[in-house]
Amino acid sequence: MIQDWQPMPGDLFVNENRLFFPGLINGHVFLTIQPPRGYFEQLDKLYHDPRLSPPHHYLAHYRWITESSTPMP
Amino acid sequence: MQDGRPAIDVLINPVMFSLQTASPDYKGLLARLNVPVIQAIATGRSIAEWEASDQGLNTVDITISVAQPELDGVIITVPVASKQCVDIDPLTGAAVNKYVAIAERMAKMVRLALNWAALRRKPNAEKKVAIVFHHYPPRNDRIGCAAGLDSFASVVDLLRAMRKKGYGVDTDYPNGDSLAQDLLAGMTCDQRCCRRSRWPLAPGLRPAPRTTTTGTPAFPKPFVRR
Q1: In chain B, which residues have their Cβ closer than 8 Å to the Cβ of A68?
Q2: Are residues B210 and A23, on separate chains, in Cβ contact within 8 Å?
Q3: Dihedral-angle region of residue B50 (phi above 0 means left; psi in -120 to 50 means alpha; beta otherwise)
Q4: How does pLDDT run across A2-19, given as a tens digit for each residue?
Q5: In terms of CA atoms, which chain A residue is nearest residue B221?
Q6: Do B177 and B147 fall within a single domain?
């Protein structure tokens, strides 16, 4: 991921070194949008290159959902 | 089963193929058990072959360990075991194969199973749910895109049904469009119209303490704005 996207947090959806995620919190429900696999200009490469890793923002989005809602046994 | 109730909270099933297509006797068996059924997927490849492969599971693995079990409605997980040649039989020269655990994947499957079991005992009011709208290509006009399905209207119906079942849903949207507009009013993942200036760092956007006490937000709100 670092090779493909620079050190964390990269530059996708980053402001002042913090990652931003879309969505609405509705009580105990988080309604959100699937994060993109990379830069808008390179869509074909992003979705069809099996060796390209997901961007930091992509993984962080799902990690945040998991870790903010799941107690880890 | 004990007194008509399942004695377990979760079942991990290592059996390949589909139960209910194997014999009509098994039809409805898992539904009667009424617990989450986790498929423990094994690959017929060695761990070295599996690791070196871009595809991971091969076609046969997917057929008998993923696709067929899915017909029974089980929960698909990750490959947890690989077939290793552990010995050559000295008398016949036959390879002696054994399924060997892939430790890290096994741990993940166990974690999933424990979480599913815990979820079963948790009241709906305490459950937290994320609903992720499909997004391809990643443009605002493609959020929730699906052929023949109004995703926003479906989610509004889903939220309403969840609310009836006691899930913590605050806002009842009158229709799909109102939910779509609410979602579009904040940050989205469309990089053509989503500039950094649209993500203000409001003073309130600090990680909330992670707590399960009632009355606090179910999800910490560090990076989400309405």
Answers
A1: 210, 219-220
A2: no
A3: alpha
A4: 999 999 998 888 888 888
A5: A25
A6: yes
Statement to judge: residues B161 and B71 lie in one domain: no
Task: Specify whether B21 is located in the same domain as B112.
Answer: yes
pLDDT score recorded for residue B212: 34
| Residue B142, in any domain of the structure | yes
Rounded to two decimals, the pTM is 0.79
Counting one residue from chain A and one from chain B, the pairs whose CB atoms sit within 8 A come to 132
Do the strands A14-15 and A29-33 form a parallel or antiparallel pair, or are they unpaired? unpaired
- With CB atoms and an 8 Å threshold, state whether A30 touches B219: yes
Q: What is the pLDDT of residues B85-102, one digit of tens each?
A: 889 999 999 999 999 999
- Look up residue B34 and give its amino acid: N
Per-residue buried b or exposed e for B31-50, using 16+ beta carbons within 10 Å of the residue's own CB:
eeeeebbbbbbbbbbebeeb
| Among B159, B196, B224, beta carbon nearest to A21 | B224
Range of the domain at B68: 11-121
Chain A contacts to B (CB-CB under 8 A): 12-13, 15-16, 18-37, 39-40, 43, 47, 50-51, 64-65, 68-73
ipTM: 0.90
> Is residue B99 included in any domain, yes or no?
yes
Secondary structure (3-state) at B75: strand
- Is the model's pLDDT at A51 over the cut of 70? yes
